[in-house]
Amino acid sequence: MGITDIIAWVVLGLIAGAIAKAIYPGHQGGGIFATIALGILGALVGGWLGGLILGTSGGAAAGALSIPSIIFAIIGAIILIFIWGLVTRRSA
pTM (2 decimals)? Predict the structure, then answer.
């Protein structure tokens, strides 16, 4: 994995995490680094789900900046936001 792959993952993570936070209802905490981490993990989850369901990763596994990889990363990030909300939910 070269420096260009790492930069591609960070850019994909930033894009996917920001879009997922904008789409998902409610308030999610975290700053820019949390958004990037959420997007990168979302890309991994989205790539894994794409491979599991469709038989393809849509380019997300390679960190490619393409429309399918961004869509898979956003879906993965939304799933992670939902799971994070369930884990951190406080009972009143």
Answer: 0.71
